[in-house]
Design goal:
By secondary structure, the chain is an alpha+beta fold. Helices cover about 15% and strands about 25% of the residues. It is built from five helices and 15 strands. The radius of gyration is 22 Å and the shape is elongated.
């Protein structure tokens, strides 16, 4: 099949001119391409992946540096069940860019959960929340292609690509408490999530062993040493690094 670049009509192979607009030089062969992350077909007209469009169909950085992800920009990547039970794209906020990678924080909680239910409680890598994020959640929220683009946030933990921001990182990249307030009016309240007046509390990472873990309160302030790790009403906002090359 061929597509006329002038009028956009689809034609059978063999035409040397477009019978719709009469042009003879604007014919091109339709290219069937697949998204390199999710494996789906790319729209031949928009040249964008319908599922991954905000993230995937960006020119390579070295060819179009002005279109590289920018700090503060929102991107969609992966999906989770919505409160209504339908698959909903996960929206991420770009916290940092480095070379051809970007550090992303989910714009809203993806679920509510306890931090750790083991006793005695160890560090982040041994917590039940870390195990769930990098196990069942990773497999359910991201396709195999999407997973291949995810890099570990902590290079010393290559098998644990999904993490949470720690207080020092969060305060360095989002210094204004107003930037850390997590409003959930638009996304809907998740099961078990405590969100008075549409603003929720959410977990931060603690690498040391202990009974408490830090969190962000309704005013955007980081609270440390935090609350008991068994509290299951705080939101979880995953942190990940993605390769755009």
């Amino acid at each position: 099949m061929q597509t006329c670049q002038n009028c956009g009509k689809t034609l059978d192979d063999g035409f040397s001119f477009c019978p719709y607009c009469g042009r003879t030089i604007l014919l091109r062969q339709t290219v069937v391409a697949t998204c390199r992350l999710c494996g789906g077909l790319i729209d031949p007209v928009t040249l964008r992946c319908p599922r991954c469009e905000p993230l995937i169909q960006r020119p390579r950085w070295e060819h179009a540096p002005d279109l590289a992800p920018k700090v503060g920009e929102s991107l969609s990547f992966g999906s989770v069940p919505s409160p209504a039970g339908e698959a909903a794209p996960i929206t991420w906020t770009v916290l940092e860019t480095r070379e051809k990678t970007a550090l992303l924080l989910s714009a809203a909680p993806v679920f509510a959960s306890a931090y750790d239910l083991t006793s005695p409680s160890g560090g982040w890598s041994g917590s039940t929340l870390c195990a769930y994020l990098n196990g069942a959640f990773l497999s359910a929220a991201f396709s195999e292609g999407e997973q291949s683009a995810i890099l570990p946030v902590n290079e010393s933990l290559p098998d644990l690509p999904l993490s949470l921001p720690d207080p020092s990182l969060l305060e360095a990249l989002l210094p204004d408490p107003g930037q850390r307030i997590c409003r959930v009016e638009e996304t809907g309240t998740l099961p078990g999530l405590y969100a008075p007046f549409g603003v929720c509390y959410w977990w931060l990472r603690e690498d040391a062993a202990g009974e408490t873990a830090p969190y962000v309160d309704a005013y955007g302030e980081t609270v440390s040493p935090g609350c008991l790790r068994s509290y299951d009403w705080l939101g979880v906002r995953p942190l990940l690094r993605i390769d755009f090359s």
